[in-house]
Amino acid sequence: MKVVSKLANVDFHIGRVKREGDGIVIFSDPDKSMPSKVYVSPEDVLRMLKAMFATPSSWLFLLLFPYYYVRARRSGKAAKKTP
To answer: Domain boundaries in the chain?
Structure first.
C-alpha cells in the first residue's frame, strides 16, 4: 500500500493487525525501515464502506479484483527476473 501526503510518501507494508479497544491497530512490517501504526475506528470503517459503495469505480474494482491481482502478480514476477 502506498501512502502519499504533503508530509510523507511511504510504502506501507502490513505486518500484523491487533484489536485494541473498539478499533484495530495495523502495524507496519517490522522488516521495513519506518515503523508505523494505523489506528482504525469503527467510524473509519463505516466511512470507508459508504465511500466504496457510493462509487461505481469501487464496484468495478471489486468485480475485476481477481484479474487485477493475477495481472499484478505476473508483472511483479517479470520485474523481479529483469536485472
So the answer is: 1-40
